[in-house]
């Protein structure tokens, strides 16, 4: 089977495995990578950018090496790698669970669930704050957990899939602006920004195109993107969050409390602050974008085979 065709089939099969089974409950390879990265950090950490560059190169380079070896397994290797790196089903499930708990008034349960979605401090958030945090996380992670790995898999096969997940995981671990990681995590954060430049914009286009599925208008989503995205501190999260806000007709951004401190985010979109029904709409949008993304990725892989 030609390489592009085997990649296309593997991506489709891996996406289906994620939709049916979700993340493995035990022994998840991404968790294993995280543990290895923590062990590596004990040896590489220093409060300077150069140390972070070395840490990033060693961790991601090792994963890319594994991907180069594993790519010889053709369809099976691509399918298993795709299943390993995707997190779309788990993302949607967590979003629905958050909506259920908020709807029932279970704030304690909602706060307990929030860390599975994002790094905000749940103890300082009320119901509206939890809904907004969950919705913004769903918007960003639709790109990070599904669109980006599928696109990297389409153009680079198994190394693209595994390498992207390594980059994104390291950013989630050390790409912070706190005292410990401001310099050491710089390379991880900047590498993740570069890796997500195109995927975030593909996510934005798909979100705008699919806005009618959640009662929105493509023009509103694109207007929010053009007007608001550049004010966000992230060149990629701003795109996907602004487009989602425009598609849903809600307002995101504002005071954002993390465990490492408080950030004042720009306003994204127009309308009221998001409520629980908007969170459910965001989950529907996320799932629609995920399906569209696998169609795009499979098409790119098939085109490579032509």
Automatic annotation (TrEMBL):
Cellular localization per UniProt: Cell membrane
Record keywords, A-Z: Cell membrane, Cobalamin biosynthesis, Membrane, Transmembrane, Transmembrane helix
Domain of life: Bacteria
Pfam family, one: CobD_Cbib
GO molecular function, a single term: ABC-type vitamin B12 transporter activity
Keyword Transmembrane annotated: yes
Listed GO biological process terms: cobalamin biosynthetic process
Topology versus the membrane: Multi-pass membrane protein
InterPro entries attached to this UniProt entry: Cobalamin_biosynth_CobD/CbiB
Statement: the UniProt record of this protein carries the keyword Electron transport: no
An annotated GO cellular component: plasma membrane
Pathway: Cofactor biosynthesis; adenosylcobalamin biosynthesis
PANTHER family: COBALAMIN BIOSYNTHESIS PROTEIN CBIB
Function: Converts cobyric acid to cobinamide by the addition of aminopropanol on the F carboxylic group.
Sequence similarity: Belongs to the CobD/CbiB family.
UniProt-recorded name of the protein: Cobalamin biosynthesis protein CobD
Gene (name only): cobD
